[in-house]
Design goal:
Elements: H1 3-9, H2 31-34, H3 64-71, H4 75-92, H5 96-100, H6 106-130, H7 136-156, E1 157-162, E2 168-172, E3 214-215, E4 233-239, E5 248-250, E6 253-260, E7 263-270, E8 276-283, E9 287-288, E10 292-293, E11 300-302, E12 305-309, E13 314-319, E14 325-330, H8 331-334, H9 339-345, E15 355-357, E16 360-366, E17 369-371, E18 374-376, E19 379-385, E20 391-395, E21 406-410, E22 413-419, E23 423-427, E24 434-439, E25 454-455, E26 460-465, E27 470-478, E28 488-496, E29 508-510, E30 513-518, E31 521-526, E32 532-538, E33 543-547, E34 550-554, E35 559-564, E36 569-577, E37 588-590, E38 593-597, E39 601-606, E40 652-655
Parallel strand pairs: 3-33
Antiparallel strand pairs: 1-2, 4-39, 5-6, 6-7, 7-8, 9-10, 11-12, 12-13, 13-14, 15-16, 16-19, 17-18, 19-20, 21-22, 22-23, 23-24, 25-26, 26-27, 27-28, 29-30, 30-31, 31-32, 33-34, 34-35, 35-36, 36-40, 37-38, 38-39
Helix pairs in contact: 4-6
Amino acid sequence: MGAGTARAVNSPNPSRSHGPGLVRAGPVRCPQMSRRKPHTQPQASPQPPTSAQPRGAAGRSVPEAALAASLRPPRRLIVSLCSLAAAALMVRAGLLEHVVGGVVDGAVRNIITLILCFSALMSAVVWFLRESGHAPRLKWAVAFSLLGVVALGLTTLRIERVSGDLLPEFRWVWQTSRDRLLAPVVVGPAAEKSRWEPSSEDFSRFLGPAGDASIPDAIAAPIDPAWTDRPPRELWRRPIGAGWSGFATEGDHAVTLEQRGDDEIITCLTLSTGEPLWQVTVPSRHQTVLGGVGPRSTPTIRDGVVYAAGATGWLHAIAGATGEVLWKKDVIADLGIDPAGHEAAVAWGRAGSPLLLDDIVVVPGGGPRRGKSGADGPVALVAYARDTGERRWTAGDDQISYVSPSLLTVGGKTFLVTVTESQVIGFDPADHAEAWRFPWSGHSNSDASCTQPVVIGAERIFISKGYGIGAAAFDVACADTAATDGAWGVKEAWRAKGSLKTKFTNVAFHDGHLYGLSDGILECVRAADGKRAWKGGRYDQGQLLRVNDLLVVQSEPGDVVLVEATPKAHRELARLHALSDQTWNSPAVIGDKLLLRNAVEAVCYQLPLLAGSQRQGATAMPGDETLPAAEPAAPAAAEPEAAAEPEAAAVTETPAP
């Protein structure tokens, strides 16, 4: 091949001339090469999306990090939940009072805590269902599960009752109330065969002989507090119907009120054995979720006659020897009170116990009355003849509360005192005319008054309640001391919103100090100025009774605790597991007998007495003849809210601040 041919082969442009008469030839290609496709990069075939590579609504892939983040609670939700939890802890610790600048009731704290917990739960649920990246199928499953649980609870559970601090107790809707399951009482021998004789130790009315939650020192038995070595001896125990009535006694008889089914019942038992003697049945039933079931008042006994008042307004006088009804009244009908209006105004049932004055029996009135031109005002008090039941008089035009009328002597004069819905009023017993009144805010369907007033000085009366109001004392004096019939006036002596917040418990006065359960914790307050001496020992919304220098504290859970009545410190001397259910009923001490009950059972204990102190009517316990004088129990430091101790506990002490 010539040189020209070689140059032409290497020329890049086949159409370009390289000299005269010469044309550049193109590259020589074989037929196979001319049919080959141009070389291109291979493309990956499309892959279906996997779980690690989800696709959004528009078909775009969601990064793996974004998916993981959508499954975790966001920071704002975590901060919100932590804030709600911190707020709930602050409320439980009592710090809410410092925030609002006032006293907060224990029940209110529980309600606020419940609201905070519910808010936290709903915040988490709303985020999960609306904003989280979980699969829709899982969200629907969780939503329907929650709705199912709520629906199941609403259809199968009911609130049977609540505690003093509004903690609910649930029961199945198909379960019958306990009081409806009780068998009929089998009455024993005729009442006249038992000893119905008055005794100096009789516990004849609500809160004792004087109605002040104290056993008079002249008749109080010297209780030996060394229950670890000599615990109280159980004499008898028996089931009882529902209700918050206490016991009243005369001789060897104990009378109380109970609810069995649709009947309120006045029951008389033998004090020494618990044997039922007679019953009087009244077709009536009062029941509310907050107040529970059954009668609330305690009978009053005098000269062998039992006076009892029910939660719905009935009043009976009964011969104690036979159980015969001497007379009966329907106070609601007698005063012309509108039942529906009264039920709305006095929401938790009538609780006032009868007061006996000479030849009359005084009970709270109520309202509103049905007048000729529509509703009329309420009546504070109404009096009936003790022997016939004839109405004698009415007094006051204020709505009633849950406090029993009482006789108090202040300023050298005895007054008939009642605590109405929003006042403390003193009437002259001679002509039932109003002598004075002290404002005491409240409503009988919300922040109600339940605590009895107590005389703490020659001219001074103490009053207290819960719902963030606390305690106060006021002086009652005659405006013109030179006049025998001068006007009477009142003046507030002191007020302590944070002390003795007695919801529906009562206080005892001893040696210049007041003792009571303040929002469930025992507290000692100086009567002169309302200053706190100490506070310790959580017994919840129970009751107490002073016997000599001891406090018999009936805790709401059922334990009975002996506490020394001293302003030095909270000293718990002994503890007895007496009852095992919610107890709002007041205890009774008759000589060496401790009589207790709640809405389920009643029990009587024989208390050990100090050596050499056998009293009339007291039965000697084993060891009384040889037991040496009891040594004072050695106090041991303990937190005021320590856990419940064994059945008989040693001394614990909470020092005064």
